[in-house]
UniProtKB/TrEMBL annotation, chains A, B:
Keyword terms of this UniProt record: Lyase
Name the UniProt record assigns to this protein: 3-hydroxy-D-aspartate aldolase
InterPro entries named among the record's database cross-references: Ala_racemase_N (IPR001608), D-amino_acid_metab_enzyme (IPR051466), D-ser_dehydrat-like_dom (IPR026956), D-ser_dehydrat-like_sf (IPR042208), PLP-binding_barrel (IPR029066)
Gene3D superfamilies, sorted: Alanine racemase, D-serine dehydratase-like domain
Domain D-serine dehydratase-like: 270-356
Organism: Methylobacterium aerolatum
Keyword Transmembrane: no
Family: Belongs to the DSD1 family.
EC number: 4.1.3.41
Length: 373, 373
């Protein structure tokens, strides 16, 4: 089920087959460098979120060039694929509760440092039993809900109860807190975002202090994303930030503004869907070859990069309808689309084609594509 | 990059790993039988659209059990994967205009009957040159735009010019018309849908007559989908119908009603996303393990099958938020979700798990998953 790759290394960009994902390596490296510098300058660890790119190659750039301490991912299957590809420090920043998945996670911890989030007392017992059985240690972060309304227990006493249970159980190590305010990341307005994150910081600080007072110090206080990391970074509370989308950016993140009404930290779009015109039977529209199966439109339509004369209007399964009011597009013309939402868009592709100076420089498999289990 | 399968044949359904796609084989077979009977009773050919399921196994059931004459797909890569898996009659119901793709299509036509749609005169010349080079014959359908506003030339003279060019060129055979009204398929109201399809029928009939008068008879007059096939089927104009979604159905197609305000032809939901609760830290919501990477939400959120007490509210990358007002859900509880839109949902999965009588009976690879090129 692996498919023909859209490019080979050394090929001129004009010859890349479409539709596919291309990575502008210069912009990508500037994003990696920019965040790496920030983390170094502020004495923070960056645990890069690999759910964005699902690529072991990109994770290695984030670690070796950007100074990241390791990666996060969301599924045991992603963790397995990344460890298989050489990664050695992986947090599953999510709950793992199904018995088979717990057994796989415990086995994986014999091959790499593996951390996982918990928000349920019974789950702590299950993780402990599996780790003992596998002869491994699972480091556990207690997840608190700091406003995202998703996973995680309430900050405060519930977190202490979980931490104590973890510390008491064999095969487990209490490693700290997961306190990610996911809902705030895409809030456009800087002031509104700041208010949400301030609440998250306050709740996290209170919980860290409570744990400390109970003899359960947090080695890791984790969270933050591309939309908010400078806030958690300046808090004095968080010490391990989990930015992922910053490497690629997308149309939706470009709408999230900093205090000067600029895109956050001036990260650049480095990920594009390369598409070609495949029907031009009408003067005012063109049909391109990238539709719903080449991207996710959950956060809106993609933007056409570097063009104000044409616009991506709508997507059907295999087609995109491009408004072409000037009738300038021709068959086989190529466009670069900025995906509406990078993470689920990467997940429908098998390859990332790295380009620089008009040539294909890298061809990276999407290592953990489709790793749902 | 092939991942662990979520099930093995013979396994009780309770042991299937999540999230994954399950097919209720009884409902699936009833759908196949129902459409097969309709086609037989009306003297029509069914060319099953494989873009829905991308599965050679399902295509073979549609052909062997349902009487389909062959399959359609939308990409050369899909056609290659299906021919590789044993299919022998494949229409790429789409334009193929990139030189590399044309060469692959012409080569494929040495191994199977291959048909393709055209809406550009220059493309006819390119297809001809490639077929001559490969020593194959490409059967071409002229695509007319009968209201979908996507690919295809205007009905009438433009179609005649294309047909004549095809007939004149070596390596090609003029096979008829592609006249698919895609926009009408999901129109909820029966009367409104009927009006759109009637226009498509009228325009197609006129074009068929014009071609006939020019000595270019149409062996194939193709189109129709799950939302409208009984209208094209009764037209006396169309003779090859391309229904695809009927095998699975989805939440959106369930909202499309027939003249008696019932779901179209009473096809049943046979495709489900099996998901499990992975966080239950709050009384009124549960978090399940199927988010944006386990489905496409372009046509809305999935429905929870057979349950009125819980509701799938929203999706983030790897999570679904389930309203659980009665606090009835527990960790590892399973739900069956009816996808909002079946085609792009299947495209993010590697496997279809066929179930019957509480056991896994079939494990089908999604043969052409991700075949974008």
């Amino acid at each position: 089920m692996a498919h023909t790759s859209p490019a080979t290394v050394g090929m001129p960009v004009e010859e890349i087959d479409t539709p596919c994902l291309v990575v502008d390596l210069d912009a990508f490296e500037r994003n990696v460098d920019k965040l790496g510098r920030y983390m170094r300058d502020h004495g923070l660890r960056h645990r890069a979120h690999a759910k964005t790119h699902k690529s072991a190659d990109i994770a290695k750039v984030q670690i070796e060039r950007g100074g990241a301490c390791g990666v996060c991912c969301q599924k045991v299957g992603e963790a397995e694929a990344l460890v298989e590809a050489g990664l050695r420090d992986v947090l599953v920043s999510n709950q793992v509760v199904a018995p088979k998945k717990i057994a796989r996670l415990a086995a994986l911890a014999t091959r790499a440092r593996v951390l996982v989030c918990v928000d349920d007392l019974g789950n702590v017992d299950d993780l402990s039993a599996a780790a003992v059985e596998a002869g491994s240690t699972l480091e556990c972060l207690v997840e608190i809900d700091v406003g995202a309304g998703r996973c995680g227990v309430a900050p405060g006493e519930a977190a202490v109860a979980l931490a104590r249970r973890i510390a008491d159980r064999p095969g487990l190590a209490f490693a700290g807190l997961q306190a990610y305010q996911g809902r705030a990341q895409h809030v456009r307005d800087h002031g509104e975002r700041r208010a949400l994150i301030q609440t998250a910081i306050d709740e996290t600080k209170r919980t860290v202090a409570l744990l400390e007072a109970e003899g359960l110090p947090c080695a890791i206080v984790a969270g933050a994303g591309t939309g908010s990391f400078e806030m958690e970074g300046a808090s004095g509370v968080y010490n391990e930030l989990q930015c992922g989308s910053y490497v690629f950016m997308d149309a939706d993140y470009q709408r999230v503004r900093d205090s000067g009404d600029r895109p956050i930290s001036e990260f650049e779009n480095s990920l594009f869907i390369l598409t070609a015109v495949m029907s031009k039977a009408k003067p005012d529209i063109a049909i391109c070859d990238a539709g719903l199966k080449a991207q996710s439109v959950d956060s809106g339509m993609p933007l056409v990069f570097g063009r104000s004369d044409v616009e991506y209007l709508k997507a059907s399964d295999e087609h995109g309808v491009i408004a072409d009011p000037g009738n300038v597009l021709r068959l086989n013309d190529r466009l670069r689309l900025i995906p509406g939402h990078c993470d689920p868009t990467v997940n429908v592709h098998d390859w990332l084609v790295g380009v620089r100076d008009g040539r294909v420089e890298a061809l990276w498999p999407v290592t953990a594509r489709g790793a749902l289990l």
